[in-house]
Structures are given as C-alpha cells and as structure tokens.
Amino acid sequence: MSWVKVLGAAFVVASCTAMGFHVASSYRLRPIQLSEVARGLRLLQAEIEYTATPLPMALRRVSDQLNPPVRGVFAAAAEKMKERDNSPKLAFTYGVQHGSAQSVLKTQDWSSLLHLSETLGSTDIIHQSREFQAALLHMESMHMQAVDGQQRYERLWQYLGALTGLFVVLMLY
User: Fold this and answer.
1) CB 85 within 8 A of CB 104
2) CA atoms within a 13 Å half-sphere pointing along the CA-CB vector of 142
3) 60 close to 78: Cβ distance less than 8 angstroms
4) Domain that holds residue 58
5) What does each C-alpha distance from 98 to 49, 77, 101, 143 come to in angstroms?
6) Cys-Cys with 38: which of 72, 75, 106, 139 at CB 3.0–4.6 Å?
7) pTM of structure
C-alpha cells in the first residue's frame, strides 16, 4: 500500500511542478514574441515605405518571414485585408483576435500595433514613418518590461510549482 502513496505523492509533485514550469514559460516566451512583433513592424515598414507594396501583399510577405504565433496575427490580418471594404484597423483587430490564440502576449502588448493600424494607409509616408517609430518605441518599452518580468518571476514560478507540490504531499500525509 505504501508504494501507492509514494506513486501518488510523486504524481502530485510532478503535476504541480509542471504547472509552475508552464506559467514560467509564459514569462520566458513573452520577450521573444514581443521581439518578433517588433521585427514584423520593421518588415512591414520597409515593405510599405521602400517598395510601396500594397498593404494586403505586404502583410502576407511579412507573415511569411515571421515565426509562429506572431505569424498568425499578420497572416490573419492579410486575409482580412483581401476582403472588400476592410480597413487596416479592422484587419489588425481581426488578426489579433484570431491569430494570437497560441501567443502568451497580453492585450496591452498588441496595443501599439492596433494604434498603428488606425493611421495606416490614411496618412502620408512621413507621418506613417513617425507612427511606425512610435510603435517600435512602445514595443521596445514593453520588451524591457517583459525582460524585467522574466528575470523576476520565471524562476519564482518554477520553484513555487515544485514547493506547492511538496506542500500538498506533506499536508496529505
């Protein structure tokens, strides 16, 4: 009978540790995904400013160069832009809602992209360039916050998961 208790205790500790590592992985992945969004913005800026590519095609080209899950946001926005009478704001809102399901990014992380989409295509190149720079600056700020959060909380959640499992086992026996 004692081997069943040991097996149960090991299962509890392992599952709590896995949950802690899962939460910690979101702190590890957030800076990586924010960097990928910033990279996507830089690529989109280059497509629009230097090659004068139409927005739906530019979004498709950018999405082909990005890594998942950020690729999904740009790809969904590109698909939505192909439909008639869709604004960039509507397309990016759709992209964030439908393409970011696998992302660990928060709603506020997408705010600079959504704000940029409000002016995309409705202003001249100089103003759009300023909007891109402002969005990239905001993304850099969010990236710095994410790195700080990673340094503070990643290891904490890993230990917290394991210690919670041990605590539950001690409370049960």
Assistant:
1) no
2) 24
3) yes
4) 2-172
5) 27, 9, 6, 23
6) 139
7) 0.87
